[in-house]
Amino acid sequence: MSIADSTATVARRGFTSPLYKILKGLIAGLFSIAITMVGLLFVTFIIARVMPVDPVLAVVGERASQEIYEAAYKAMGLDQPLYVQFLLFLKQVAMGDFGMSTLTARPVVEDIVRVFPATLELATLATIAGVGIGVPMGVLAAVNEGRWPDQLIRLVGLFGYSMPIFWFGLMGLLIFYGVLGWVSGPGRIDIYYEDIVPVVSGMILIDSLIAGEIEIFWNAVSHIILPASILGYYSIAYISRMTRSFMLEQFSQEYITTARVKGVSETAVIWRHALPNVMIPLITVIALSYANLLEGSVLTEIIFSWPGLGNYITNALLSADMNAVLGGTVVVGAIFVGLNLFSDFMYKVVDPRAR
Q: Which tens digit of pLDDT belongs to each residue from 164-192?
């Protein structure tokens, strides 16, 4: 073999090596994320501009003079063409600057850092319940297809999909807090416990344990258990239904029939053969469910006075605080993009064929 042939062979091997594939996939993923985020920023920017809300009045107030109004109008860059305003907006976001919130008089970034852990804590507990209960329920329904456990689980899931979450939350407060007294009321903790626990992670359950405040920890548990259970119920309904569908699809495959013919136990067929193949599409389902809980817990946060991102965006929108609305929307979009990227990464971990 000549030197030229050897060089070409080495080059071909380099382009097919696992490291090259990983780097290529990483670059492609980052490029896709950049394009998606620019598109998201453009859409949110246009929506903010076409909304029937004057951002200048939200800053200076309705009683401001015309001179003050015009000065604020120019200072905010609203006298520039739209494309210039969008480029300035991109530059600010790239620097991590979403402007000042007119509602709290603080930088929007600081507000988001303060409120997001509350939403993260609530959605994480709901997702843990959704995965820990929903996946076994879906497997049980698939194994007992057409029998009473399957019918019961499907009924529970249908009930979860059909029930409006605001009604469900109000009924939960009425029954479990107002009548039975099993849980605490709205808010994260009782008011006399506020500002006692030092903020480390922003999540009250973790921070109270770090500080050794066990009484505050259990008080926080009594507050979060009802809203987390309500959100978790919706997650359970979705994940159990999708798990059932994926498992039934696997049960119809030839390799499952072959395993049963060979005398493999039904337990091994379910948990060692079918379920691992279900995990690949199930990862996407769980990631999207988690993203939906992080973004879609607005009504739950309002009903339970939960000081999270959804409540923050809603109050900002009602107060015409467009900087806060834009900042919160961008964070929600980034969560969806990030979780999609994470699910793609987990594909490669779970299934070597996707590498």
A: 777 888 888 888 888 888 888 888 888 88
